[in-house]
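Hey, can you fold this one?
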Amino acid sequence: MRIKLASLVFFAALSGTMAQDYPNQPITLIAPFAAGGTSDVIARLIAERMGDALGQRIVVENVAGAGGSIGLVRAARARPDGYVLAIGNVGTNAAAYSIYPDLQYRPDSFAPIGLVAKTMPAIAIKKDFPGSTPQEFLAYAKANPGKVSFGHAGVGSSNYIICKQFLAATKLDITLVSYRGAGPALNDLLGGHIDGVCDTATSLSGSIEAKSVKGLVVASASRLPTLPGVQTSVEGGIPDFQGEGWNAIFAPKDTPAPIIAKLNAALRQASENPTYRQRLTDLSAVVASGQEFDPAYVSALVPREVEKYRKLLAE
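Sure. Predicted structure:
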């Protein structure tokens, strides 16, 4: 008993020393998708500002595959010392548990740092698609079952969930095509190899504004200021296509509380940066606020989202 107690005291003291020195080397933030998608863009923006707040570089590393689960497995297995983190979303940290029964991580594999941003689901179609409005698209897809193809960032990704939500709301027969990330899917849409993509307004706004693709619909009750020409799901006759995505930062479980606190403080400080806030606004994303920054908020959010998407995917 004395030996066990002595060990606990030793490791507690070691954790305290680690936290005092933290961070004394660059931090890796795993973005579990290919470069160019929503999670990757948000990861790079927040990493730069959090690095400034911590006085240490945060390097974003793309670890793509299996709807983001490969990157999350790596993060879950990392040493709990605060030097390997991951940015997760509704796909990797909620829906994936219903899609991959043998997933090598669970919700309690992670210690949340806090919510970073909220995003709006959207659908974009190729610029020469026969039809531009949701009504025209619905008519075409219904008349051509199975012929329309939508790309997403892999089964289990938040983009895959957007596709599932869209199909549930429209009852359409659309072929879903899996990619290693949102970037490759969008590239194939730009090249005309697929008919559309399920993504977020954050990822699609640049291509829509450049008229490289057509913005079909956003899963919102009101139009986005950044995409005023894109109809809402309510306007487009798809009122059940509603939702909101999110991105949060996670550390491996057992990461010392003082390190979690330092990272959380850096996240809060970074989120106050006017340039960062404006950049996210320009990308149709909403910066987290209030209690959304709290690790406890994310800890409570995840199981609710797990159950929500378990029901959606069971339909």
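The mean pLDDT is 93. Let me know if you want another pass with a different chain boundary.
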